[in-house]
């Protein structure tokens, strides 16, 4: 998620962008109050929309604020904003969102902002928000309409196997009810029957398979409704729902550059998928995997990775255990290399990804060659 801009940065850009960023800067300290008021307004004025949302609204409020901050940050960067909004519009199909819902949301958003951004609110600010929201909602509506012609809003998938690797990590294999096309390195959203309308993101743990099965690595986290249900309640025969695949942490097969992969905890799942993807192409490009964990016990998939290493001479797998090495995963990468000619991939906890990006830049990996899970989803992946 983009960091909130300093006051000086809020003055940059087009006239509408300046007014919108000033609004966001003012509501920043009371963002929770603003988003709570927005949803209260929405459900009172349009009670028929309540059924589209989960029973508990905490994560939903975070997502609204995140979307507003992202839009404000990139309002003048059309390509980035449109790409973000198109993904959002396609993803909203699984909630049952329709084109006619957007005006109600816009009306209540303006109502909440005008109530709390009193120091900067004006007819000009309101007009800027109306213009921005009209554009934003149209991009999302168009993306959803185009996606509807190509794929369903969601897929049902039956749990085929459930392998509890540690007390809080499970590997699940599922069978979608219809073809599901994705790329190694991508992720999807998952809803369980125990928590309707609560979706969380998980990466695919293998490259696409000929049998159509999908695999996910799930770690149960405190207060994680979906993760705890998948780890502790799901059994073969249960049916979950999947949203569309998304994410750009994929292999560029037009080059033979080496891959430098950092996977922390269950973040090893998409790294394993990337290795399989390279193997299936028959390329002998070097792939260097650093698999990080707090303890030996947390290296739940190390045997799989070592078997892959035995099968492919171009693959190197190194385990980095915090409690033994007394060093964090990103810093361990400094002892090897150089990496400036490699494409870097990071997957794991948000803190690891942030420190990993900083470390890789510091040791000379160009930012354009660093890829990781979608920044927009880092707050909610794996809950």
- Low confidence ranges: 1-10, 375-383
Return the structural class: alpha/beta
The helix-strand sequence is: HHHHHHEEEEEHEEHEHEHHEHE
Query: Would you report the number of β strands?
Result: 11
**Major sheet description:** 6 strands, antiparallel
Helix tally? Answer: 12
Strand order of the largest sheet: 4-3-6-1-2-5
* Head-to-tail CA distance between termini: 16 Å
What is the residue-mean pLDDT, rounded to a whole number? 89
Radius of gyration: 22 Å
- Determine the oligomeric state from the structure: single chain
Strand content: 15-25%
Helix-residue proportion: 25-40%
Shape: globular
Describe this structure in words.
Helices cover 40% and strands 18% of the residues. It is globular. The N terminus and C terminus are likely disordered. α1 packs across α6. β10, α12 and β11 form a beta-alpha-beta unit. It is α/β, with parallel strands linked by helices. The chain has twelve helices and eleven strands. The protein starts with 14 loop residues before the first helix and ends in an 11-residue tail after the last strand. Strands 4-3-6-1-2-5 form a six-stranded antiparallel beta sheet. The protein has a five-stranded parallel beta sheet with strand order 9-8-7-10-11, with helices on both faces.
């Amino acid at each position: 998620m983009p960091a909130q801009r300093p006051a000086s940065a809020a003055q940059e850009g087009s006239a509408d962008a300046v007014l919108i960023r000033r609004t966001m800067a003012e509501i920043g300290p009371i963002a929770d109050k603003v988003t709570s008021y927005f949803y209260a307004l929405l459900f009172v004025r349009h009670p028929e929309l309540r059924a589209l949302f989960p029973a508990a609204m905490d994560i939903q409020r975070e997502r609204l604020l995140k979307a507003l901050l992202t839009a404000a940050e990139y309002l003048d960067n059309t390509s980035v904003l449109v790409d973000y909004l198109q993904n959002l519009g396609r993803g909203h199909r699984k909630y049952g969102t329709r084109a006619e819902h957007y005006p109600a949301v816009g009306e209540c958003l303006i109502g909440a902002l005008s109530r709390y951004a009193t120091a900067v609110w004006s007819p000009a600010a309101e007009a800027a928000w109306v213009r921005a929201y009209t554009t934003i909602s149209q991009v999302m509506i168009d993306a959803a309409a185009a996606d509807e012609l190509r794929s369903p809003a969601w897929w049902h998938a039956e749990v085929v196997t459930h392998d509890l690797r540690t007390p809080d990590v499970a590997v699940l294999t599922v069978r979608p009810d219809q073809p599901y096309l994705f790329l190694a390195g991508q992720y999807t959203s998952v809803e369980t029957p125990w928590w309707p309308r609560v979706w969380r993101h998980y990466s695919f743990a293998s490259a696409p398979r000929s049998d159509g099965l999908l695999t996910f690595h799930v770690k149960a986290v405190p207060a994680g409704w979906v993760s705890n249900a998948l780890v502790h309640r799901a059994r073969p025969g249960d049916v979950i729902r999947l949203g569309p695949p998304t994410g750009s942490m994929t292999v560029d097969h037009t080059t033979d550059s080496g891959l430098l992969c950092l996977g922390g905890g269950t973040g090893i799942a998409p790294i394993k998928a990337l290795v399989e993807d390279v193997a299936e192409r028959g390329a002998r490009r070097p792939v260097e995997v650093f698999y990080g964990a707090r303890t030996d016990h947390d290296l739940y998939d190390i045997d799989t990775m070592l078997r892959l290493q035995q099968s492919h001479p171009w693959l190197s797998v190194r385990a980095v255990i915090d409690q033994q090495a007394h060093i964090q995963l990103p810093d361990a990468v400094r002892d090897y290399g150089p990496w400036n000619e490699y494409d870097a991939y990071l997957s794991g906890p948000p803190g690891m990804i942030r420190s990993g990006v900083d470390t890789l830049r510091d040791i000379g990996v160009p930012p354009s060659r660093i890829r990781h899970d979608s920044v927009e989803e880092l707050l909610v992946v794996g809950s």
